[in-house]
Amino acid sequence: MGIEQNWQPSASLEVIRQRADLLISIRDFMRERSILEVETPVLSHTAVTDPHIHSLSTVHQSQDKSHHETLYLHASPEFCMKRLLAAGSGPIYQVTRVFRDQESGSRHQPEFTMLEWYRPGFDYVELMDEIDDLLQGLGLDVSQRQSYRDAFWQETHLDPHTAGIDTLQTLAVQSGWKTGSSDRAELLDFVFSMKVVPQLGIDSPLFIYDYPECQAALATIKECKPPIAERFELFISGMEIANGFNELCNAGEQRSRFERDLDLRAQTGKPAVAVDERFITALVHGLPTCAGVAVGLDRLLMVLTGSTKIDDVLTFPSNRN
């Protein structure tokens, strides 16, 4: 489609108004609970270490052009928000644009809107309760909950915590897997996405909770057998809407996880990135025990408007900007 044909917004004016109403509802919800709205920088000196997230970068040049440096557009406001928590902010939230490379399709855009909020003193069960309150206030049904293990078993008849790598590889190949990877977290994520996710949250919003330890990301680990990551995701109509954790507060463990990420990046030929030392220092200072969540607002708006393509809820997606 040429420029002369795609100058108009892809979202209808009615959907644009619904987005505005959604933002008002979210801010009213947070204000009623005394959760402070904050802003943090979009540009950062460090990219995320997660080997499955690809950062977009730009170059900043000094006014006299004697100095330049690479800066990264944030994939999430998480690290800066946790620095605010460590500085004593109390409960906070933010609505912001975030950026990720190699993301496009009917549910993905390289630039999208995220709602992120943190609740000191909450655990992930209490935060799921609060998210459910928000969803009901937006007119959605009461949410349901199911453990990751039960959801995985229901569709594959495998226990995701104990299934062997060979077994997972076989199932992944049957589902279209082509990389040949033996990374457990990557295999589970692929099988879960292909076999399980399309069935989730069809009748009502569904929280999947207690993930395998290898998929902990920035979540705490529950000391049980097998160990479980205190993490949840929200699914509606077979689409992931939110990702939350009991947040990891231990600086040493966080550094170890960053180093494992960097090893995996090297093994898979992805660019090396620097660890965010300011974030680590904030954890050393002391991050309060808290639960946090990131919500994809464009996808939530898709649910609220009955849209099947993310372009239908955006004014100007990447092919029109």
Please give a structural write-up:
This protein has 321 residues and is of the alpha+beta class. It has a single domain (13-143, 204-313), classed as 2-Layer Sandwich (BirA Bifunctional Protein, domain 2). Helices cover 35% and strands 22% of the residues. The chain is built from nine helices and twelve strands. It has helices at residues 13-32, 78-86, 124-137, 148-156, 165-174, 184-196, 251-267, 277-286, 297-305; strands spanning 36-37, 43-44, 56-61, 68-73, 92-99, 111-120, 144-147, 206-212, 221-222, 228-236, 239-246, 290-296. The strands form two sheets. Strands 1, 5, 6, 7, 8, 9, 10, 11 and 12 form a nine-stranded mixed sheet that branches. Helix 2 runs parallel beside helix 8 (277-286). The protein starts with 12 loop residues before the first helix and ends in a 16-residue tail after the last helix.
